[in-house]
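Hey,
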Amino acid sequence: MTISHFLADDLQSKSQILDLIALAKTIKGSPAEYSQALAGKSVAMIFEKPSLRTHVSFDIGIAKLGGHALYLGQQNGKLGERERVSDYAKNLSCYADAIVARVFSHQSITGLAEHASVPVINALCDLYHPCQALADFVTLAEQFDDLTQVKLAYVGDGNNVSNSLMLVAAILGVDFTLACPEGYGPNSEMFANAQALAEQSGSKLVLTHDASAIGAQDVIYTDTWVSMGDDTKFADIEASFMPFQVNHAMMETTGATKVLHCQPAHLEHEITTALFDDEKYSIVFEQAENRMWAQMAVLVTLFANQ
């Protein structure tokens, strides 16, 4: 498999995604066999947004592969303000063997990839969260033998996480339902792209604004209703979003057996505490762990192509 960057879900083919899922599971099962995969390599990690799981999973994952991670936090300001994105990319390429970037704008990701001479990994932007989606499908692959038989529903705010989930589901042939309040659905261009991909794979893609019309599902996924950096007040959206709260009643109505959340969770808002902590349904911490293994698979693949 040849990939030069890991920027967006819809830039990956079905075989590439499946190969990454399989490799993540292999590394997770035998991490010692990959302990020198990044020996002598350094990875620069740009974080315009603070993070727990993304920072820790990349840092420790890189160390498990024998590499070195350098954290570049908010002290350098937003990309493109203190200095051009192109200059940032070219400078980091002088020192680092790869760049991981968690940024506000997808334009920053594409700018880094355009001007860097080393691989660039999108660790989150406003349009995509491909590392999260890959980890999510690794988690699903651990729970279900055939992903194409899984019915997955995302319930809540249409955002970068739902975009990536929707796109990967469409590419892999997974039936996907997106349930969002009116006015909080996906970008129309992103949804049209996912529809086209779903037609190619033969999967079913449904968008509904009725929380009671989700239908039969195997897995329910949710995320915070107010994304990091958004100054929207909960009181202003409560009436629109509360019918979309993921709880035990929704699990029973849909027949779903598992619930996912990319965290941090705002308990009693998008998901109840009882469901988030329910060991029968909740696999949110397995999902969080798989961020590391999925990202390690991306790094191993990128460096194998050099």
